[in-house]
Automatic annotation (TrEMBL):
Pfam families: GalP_UDP_transf (PF01087). It comes from the Eukaryota. This is Galactose-1-phosphate uridyl transferase N-terminal domain-containing protein. One of its GO terms (biological process) is galactose metabolic process. Signal peptide: none annotated. Residues 1-36 are annotated as: Disordered. Residues 134-208 form the Galactose-1-phosphate uridyl transferase N-terminal domain. The active site is at 198 (tele-ump-histidine intermediate).
Amino acid sequence: MRTKSVGGGKRRCPSLSVSSPLSIITQENDDEDPSPQLRKSVIWNRWIIFSQDNGKKASDFKGKSTFNTNPSRNKPCVFCIGHEDECTPEIFRVPYDETNWKIRVVENPNAVLSRDLPVFIDVPEFVGVLDGFGIHDVVIESPVHSDQLLDLSPKEIGEIFVAFTSRIQELVHLESIKYIQVFKNHGEKAGGSMSHSHSQILALPIIPPSVSARLGNMKDYFYQTGKCCICEIQSEDLLIDSSTYFFSLVPFAASFPFEIWIIPRNHSAHFHELDAEMGVDYM
């Protein structure tokens, strides 16, 4: 075990032509040690993030509407262009080092995990509590407060996806990081605290058991049949849409209403293998 701060500082981003397997519990910050923790439930075989109470975290939502009903009245926030000095440390921006940026990746101002806690390289199999080490970043998707993801062009959204992959490619080289999740909470009811359009990246020192189980089941299917169960999906029966590199479908045994899978046509194991051309096609 060692202690260090990771994930900060500017990085050069290459030029550019969403249910989480973890639960997050916030609690009142009455203890002497406010550091977050990762706790494992023996009964449910899952990890829970226990974080200090974020109930008083900054929020610029004015009402309960998911969308900005009157964008002209929106006030600038720390995610807006021109307010960079009020925001948390920047990791990189697109275009790189340009004042008129299009995308910024910054440290999450309301991080549920800490990049300054002890780093665990190998987590003991039967450990029940870990210091809440991890990387929690925000991807600011537009410099304009009133822009939502649906307002952006396919090319602009593709650039956001490439920014995801650029950050993931940095994080995968950290020996302590075992799993990386990209997610987006859209609207106050979904858990978003800022109405300025953004996504989040969470990098963990453990692999959530639900993810391990899914991978294990896919490996078992391959050993029994010699085939990939994702590649074998009969998309014609459940197909929603298709493009050059991807197709979307309703899973046969969906876990919740409106669940959609977006699957690459070519066998691919990692999200960060997506490039600029595929990012545009993804949309």
